[in-house]
Amino acid sequence: FVFKFVFLFSPHTDSFRWVKDGKEFRRELFESGTLTAEVKEELRSYQGSYRCYVANELGTAVSDLAHLITEPIPTLAKEKRQKTRSFEEGESAVLYCNPPKSSVTPKIHWMDIQLRHIPLNERVTTSLDGNLYFANLIVNDSREDYTCNAHYISASVILPKERISISVTPSNSVVKNRRPQLQKPAGSHSSYLVLRGQTLTLECIPKGLPTPEVQWERMDSPLSPARVRMLKYKRWLQIESVSEADDGEYTCTAQNSQGSVKHHYSVTVEAAPYWTRRPEDHLYAPGETVRLDCQAEGIPTPNITWSINGVPIAGTDSDSRRHVSSGTLILTDVQYSDTAVYQCEATNKHGNILVNTRVHVVELPPQILTADGLVYKATEGQTALLQCHTFGSPQPKVDWEIFNSGPALANAKMSQTSDGNLQISDVSEDDSNMYTCSVRHSNRSISAELQVLNRTKIVDPPQDLRVLRGDDAVLQCKYTVDHKLKQPTIQWKKDKHKITSSANDDNEYTDGSLKITDVQMEDSGIYSCEISTKLDSVSATGSITVQDKPGSPYSLGLSEKKDRSVTLSWMPGAENNSPVSEYVIERKEEQNPEKGRWEEYRRVPQDIRHLEIHLQPYNTYHFRVRAVNGIGMSEPSPPSDSYSTPAAKPDMNPENVTTVSTDSNSMVITWQELEQRQFNGPGFKYKIYWRQASGSSPHWKESSASNPPFIVNGTGTFIPFEIKVQAVNELGVGPEPDAEIGYSGEDLPLEAPSEVAVTELNKTTVLVRWSPVSMESVRGHLLGYKIHLRKKGPRTHSRRSLPMQEPAADRNRVIVVHGNKVEMVVSDLQFYSNYTLTVAPFNSKGEGPHSKAYHFSTPEGAPGPVSFLTFESPSETEMTLRWGAPNKPNGVLTGYLLHEQLMESINLPLDTEFTLKGLNPQIQYHFMLRALTAAGDGEPIEIEGATLLDGEPPSAINIEAGQTSVNVSWVPGERQRNFAFSFRYLKKRGGEWEESEKVNSSQAFYQLQGLTPGVQYHLKIHPGNNSWEFKTAGPELHELPSSFATQGWFIGLISAMVLLLLVLLILCYIKKSKGGKYSGNAQSTSHSFLEKSMFKNTMENIHPCRG
């Protein structure tokens, strides 16, 4: 080994020496303070406590104690291979590690033979001593390669222990669950002594089924999340850097559905000595008084001792100028000989600490070491320290003054430190000024300027956010700084660790905000932003809680396996910052094709981790579990092992056993089939039993079928039978079924109702009665009666108002009377009509014979409204009304009644037209017209109208022109008769007027077509004097200038010449064909001469036949 001692004393170090266990160990070393072990000597001889002394002309300094422990590298003793340990499912177990002992505790890793870590959770955890604890065992815990690996970090050694094998067999115990008990620590109370600054770990490892949950509490105050950490799935409670405030009582409670157990921990905190005040090195002038304050704390209270140059004061010559009071060493009237190194040492049972203090007695003139004219800057509320370092012996005394304000110490906020600096607390803008520091009794002084700036503030601090995983989160941190300061630095921290961002990150904004994109669970934590300038800094904290659907449950296990049930257990996954509210158990059945997919079986509260599930025989089941929280449902857990139940006899028989017979000589038995999972075994079928309900044979007939329906033939018509259906498989029959009454097939009823009678209730309603048929004639279940009502037509009718043809549905009606009722009210009959009705019984097979027809008539009634009512106005004082006869005259029409408020009612004959004369054109008339019969007035039909005025063409029109057409629209005159007119139009550059077809004034729209694009037109309405202009859209088509080639006379001349030339050619051809001198008679000759003479003058220059 090598011991080095570094002591910053002076460049004139003379010698080093070492003391081991209070005795001189080596001679003095003049070159260095390094102590090296001799190769020849055994290393263990060097174990002990060491202290180094270094000396020069100014004194001797002493080091703290250094403790050296020597031990060999840990090794494993040879171990025997352990036998496989057997356990029953649900029991607890401990696998012991027992690593080799060492002064340094090794780190323990439980792994398998392939060096994969054994998964740890609430059920499986490790203790501080390295043992592996199982709260309860499941079959999957069986393995042969549990290996404890002890890692000695300082020795760089990993020691694997001998493999441990355990076997877990399924439990057949009646006990379902186990009460919690503590595997570690033992008993109900334990005590712990921990030193200040150390780490305290309390462990609470329970066993039980279901796996117990652990809760920690502090008896005298709540646990502080900032001080306490829960480790190993809450099995460990850890406090780092323990302080006296952590002294107290703690409890751990382990509980499950079967009960709870509690353990109490008494924690006592003591402390090795630590400094509360240290003496400082200083220069002193002869004659001054030296006061060296040395204060230390610890539990128990440490003892303070003083030494001079490494020699205890108690061992030196007594000096009246030197005494110790409450740990303070006081030297009066010091001399040059008092220059030395003084040691203060604090000691209690937990250790000791030592501090060296140099006292140098010398006489030097005063000097100011701080530069003149320094500028100090501070922000409001800070404490400013204006320096005035001096040097000299004795220590110079200084005074501070404020420019134009006098002594600084007159201000209550200002004080002077022992080394001459001016301290100004809670500075404000009023403290900005010039300050002067002067050495008393000398002419030495310096000046300093203080500038007070605005304090840096965070105006929009980060908040506590709850964010869904995958979303973005933005933490605000808006601030203000003094304009005289440069842009501050912004530092974000997460859980007190700095957040570093690369140049490509978009996480931070210029206003100080922090954006985290696509947040994940690991982004949850406490965030703080710190705004720092050269003068001050300010920080604020917020938090991000990332929430997500819960993690999938895991470690599904099946226990207490029985013929009809099994207990499913699982371990909860991560809650992801949203508490789990319930678990969803899903199952899949292999034997049932309809259930061959995962389906929800049941939901249970979040505190249940074990559930007994009832099963059907002869099936194979798989299970999985989902967790639900406020965010949503987790992914399913890995499926459990499959579990198959043995076959059994059927538990139930089919329901809804009944008959649905349709054939009159057979019986059809049907039932609601059982689901396949209710078959309970192989070879499933149904056994059917039947016998007559009141027959001569008491014996049951039976048969079997794989599914409904089942048909029994030769039963007769509508015979009652007792029937029952029983479930059967290869292992036996189901429960004894109850017998039901069924019937063979029905047939049509044989008997018709008699004594049919009709009683008039009002003009359109009658009461129909009849005598019932005998039940034997029904040959089935009597469902009721049907009344067939037929309207044969009106009794008589008016010659001038023939009724309209009625639909068949109105002429023929069927009224259904359900059950055994023998009377029925029939309403909505037509007035003045002849009816015939019959009554017939019916069952499910159909209707039986009808009763004898019964004839009756309805009386005459008031007519219905006329079918239509219109009017025309042939002049301004006349109006002609036209109407149609009522569709429902309801009797013989006698005429019509016309009523108008401004005139007397008029009785009209059976005509359908009437002209009113002498009307006022300024009045709107309201007419009501009724049809009349002997029974009364019919319903009125109303119409409003006024006479029409003479029509006239429109005087105002709207024109919308296109390229080849124009749309003309107008508003027809109100109350005007139709008026015919036409449009006349003319091109503005010339041409003839063109006229449209006749247009009616009521049209309100007309389109003129065939126009020329880009041309200006005149437009008139005929008759009328109004005119308008418009221009068609598009480019204007310009006409070519007129020439003789386009004149009519020229074209006629050319046409005549062409015709004459054609005739001449024909004549030449004839002449050549005849030939000879005497080829024609005198008449022909004369004709030829005339032809020549006729065309001589006009064709003398054309010679097509010459030669």
From TrEMBL:
<keyword id="KW-0130">Cell adhesion</keyword>
<keyword id="KW-0472">Membrane</keyword>
<comment type="function">
    <text>Neural cell adhesion molecule involved in the dynamics of cell adhesion and in the generation of transmembrane signals at tyrosine kinase receptors. During brain development, critical in multiple processes, including neuronal migration, axonal growth and fasciculation, and synaptogenesis. In the mature brain, plays a role in the dynamics of neuronal structure and function, including synaptic plasticity.</text>
</comment>
<protein>
    <recommendedName>
        <fullName>Neural cell adhesion molecule L1</fullName>
    </recommendedName>
</protein>
<feature type="domain" description="Ig-like">
    <location>
        <begin position="180"/>
        <end position="268"/>
    </location>
</feature>
<keyword id="KW-1133">Transmembrane helix</keyword>
<dbReference type="GO" id="GO:0005886">
    <property type="term" value="C:plasma membrane"/>
</dbReference>
<keyword id="KW-0812">Transmembrane</keyword>
<dbReference type="Pfam" id="PF13927">
    <property type="entry name" value="Ig_3"/>
</dbReference>
<dbReference type="Pfam" id="PF00041">
    <property type="entry name" value="fn3"/>
</dbReference>
<dbReference type="Pfam" id="PF00047">
    <property type="entry name" value="ig"/>
</dbReference>
<keyword id="KW-0325">Glycoprotein</keyword>
<dbReference type="Pfam" id="PF07679">
    <property type="entry name" value="I-set"/>
</dbReference>
<dbReference type="InterPro" id="IPR036179">
    <property type="entry name" value="Ig-like_dom_sf"/>
</dbReference>
<keyword id="KW-0732">Signal</keyword>
<dbReference type="InterPro" id="IPR036116">
    <property type="entry name" value="FN3_sf"/>
</dbReference>
<keyword id="KW-0677">Repeat</keyword>
<dbReference type="GO" id="GO:0007420">
    <property type="term" value="P:brain development"/>
</dbReference>
<feature type="domain" description="Fibronectin type-III">
    <location>
        <begin position="752"/>
        <end position="861"/>
    </location>
</feature>
<dbReference type="GO" id="GO:0030426">
    <property type="term" value="C:growth cone"/>
</dbReference>
<dbReference type="InterPro" id="IPR013106">
    <property type="entry name" value="Ig_V-set"/>
</dbReference>
<feature type="domain" description="Ig-like">
    <location>
        <begin position="74"/>
        <end position="165"/>
    </location>
</feature>
<feature type="domain" description="Fibronectin type-III">
    <location>
        <begin position="953"/>
        <end position="1048"/>
    </location>
</feature>
<feature type="domain" description="Ig-like">
    <location>
        <begin position="456"/>
        <end position="545"/>
    </location>
</feature>
<dbReference type="InterPro" id="IPR013098">
    <property type="entry name" value="Ig_I-set"/>
</dbReference>
<dbReference type="InterPro" id="IPR003961">
    <property type="entry name" value="FN3_dom"/>
</dbReference>
<dbReference type="GO" id="GO:0007411">
    <property type="term" value="P:axon guidance"/>
</dbReference>
<feature type="domain" description="Fibronectin type-III">
    <location>
        <begin position="653"/>
        <end position="747"/>
    </location>
</feature>
<feature type="region of interest" description="Disordered">
    <location>
        <begin position="632"/>
        <end position="660"/>
    </location>
</feature>
<keyword id="KW-0393">Immunoglobulin domain</keyword>
<dbReference type="InterPro" id="IPR013151">
    <property type="entry name" value="Immunoglobulin_dom"/>
</dbReference>
<dbReference type="InterPro" id="IPR003598">
    <property type="entry name" value="Ig_sub2"/>
</dbReference>
<keyword id="KW-1003">Cell membrane</keyword>
<feature type="domain" description="Ig-like">
    <location>
        <begin position="366"/>
        <end position="453"/>
    </location>
</feature>
<dbReference type="GO" id="GO:0098632">
    <property type="term" value="F:cell-cell adhesion mediator activity"/>
</dbReference>
<comment type="similarity">
    <text>Belongs to the immunoglobulin superfamily. L1/neurofascin/NgCAM family.</text>
</comment>
<keyword id="KW-1015">Disulfide bond</keyword>
<feature type="domain" description="Fibronectin type-III">
    <location>
        <begin position="552"/>
        <end position="648"/>
    </location>
</feature>
<feature type="transmembrane region" description="Helical">
    <location>
        <begin position="1049"/>
        <end position="1070"/>
    </location>
</feature>
<dbReference type="InterPro" id="IPR003599">
    <property type="entry name" value="Ig_sub"/>
</dbReference>
<dbReference type="InterPro" id="IPR007110">
    <property type="entry name" value="Ig-like_dom"/>
</dbReference>
<dbReference type="InterPro" id="IPR013783">
    <property type="entry name" value="Ig-like_fold"/>
</dbReference>
